[in-house]
Amino acid sequence: CLEGGLINKALADFNRAVKIDPEHPDAYISRGVVYKEKGFLDGALADFNRAIEIDSKNSDAYNNRGIVYGIKGIYDKAMADFDRAIELNPENKKAHENRIITYRKISGSRLTEQDKYKNKDKVGYKLKL
Predict the structure, then answer these.
(1) Is 106 helix (H, G, I), strand (E, B) or coil?
(2) What domains appear along the chain, each with residue ranges and CATH number?
(3) CB-side exposure of 72: number of CA atoms within 13 Å?
(4) What does the alpha-carbon distance between residue 84 and residue 58 come to, in Å, rounded to a whole number?
(5) Nearest Cα to 64, choosing from 40, 95, 93?
(6) In principle, which of 10, 20, 78, 108 could form an S-S bond with 66, CB 3.0–4.6 Å?
(7) pLDDT tens digits for range 71-82
């Protein structure tokens, strides 16, 4: 989590990076993360969308966009983005974690680690464990 002047410096740096290479998805992803941290969710979504336009196979872009959708309470889009992030990169641990967190919000349940493994057959399909 960036604080104070650091977040503003980071934003300035990523703005420069986008101007230097407007076809580099990581610059948009990084700036989108800063926008999210500052609470500029629409700006973050725009940057994650742009990153996906540039590279439709970028797992991190989908994961980060899913986080913003989750913050906005648009859980169906969040889950779709986490699913896509995992499809593109099954090793993306953050996307797996975010999907579980979002599923908990949707279901209103609190799955413990023990529940997750004990009931794998029951909840595994929904969580894709």
Answers:
(1) helix
(2) 1-56 (1.25.40.10), 75-129 (no CATH)
(3) 19
(4) 9
(5) 95
(6) 78
(7) 999 999 999 999
